[in-house]
Amino acid sequence: MNISRKVKTRTLTQAAFLVALSIALTRFGSIMVLPTLRIGFGDTPIMLSGILFGPIVGGISGVAADLLGIMINPQGPPHLGFTLSSALWGVISGLYIMYFKKKDIKTNIFSADKVAIIVVTCYLVISVGLNTYWLSQLYNKGVIVMLPGRVLTALINIPIQVIIITYLGRYLRNIASR
Question: How many angstroms separate the CA atoms of 88 and 98, rounded?
């Protein structure tokens, strides 16, 4: 992907829609089980942004969703680590899709196995790894204390995310490629 390439207005509009959807799902459509444990699907639109438009647009979408979400409805004290994590949802997804496209263009990039690789990697690195660390800093709790609940949440969310992204991806790839 050429970084100096201009982003089309259509891409910008579609990414902005995914940012708005992410904010709505994160701030208003998620359930806070504990102060350190939230069940929701606000990261799905950011991963879709990375998959559809690449790692740069996906990363920018993640940053925009986090910062705008903090301004609209903060769910605790702001922490720039979560902004980095939000950007990584789009960046990692976009990088994987770039890799998959280089390896085998003829196969479907929205096949369940490829989406599962993306979702599992994102959840392990970002949700279980980085976000647990950011929460331990924020609430002065040990990472090991929070880890079982975070892993349980990831185990619940991963299959659901794979199904949602696989299903939506089959329809959205035609829209994004126009």
Answer: 15
pTM of the predicted model as reported, rounded to 2 decimal places = 0.88
The secondary structure of the chain in percent helix, strand, coil, rounded to multiples of 5, reads 75, 5, 20
How confident is the model over 109-130, as pLDDT tens digits?
A: 788 889 999 999 999 999 999 9
Phi, psi of 35 (to 5 degrees): -60, -25
b/e per residue 108-125 (b: at least 16 CB within 10 A): ebbeeebbbebbeebbee
Among the CATH numbers 3.60.21.10, 3.10.20.740, 3.30.230.10, 1.10.1760.20, which is that of 9-176?
A: 1.10.1760.20
User: Do the beta carbons of residue 88 and residue 62 sit within 8 Å?
Assistant: yes
Q: What count of residues does the chain have?
A: 178
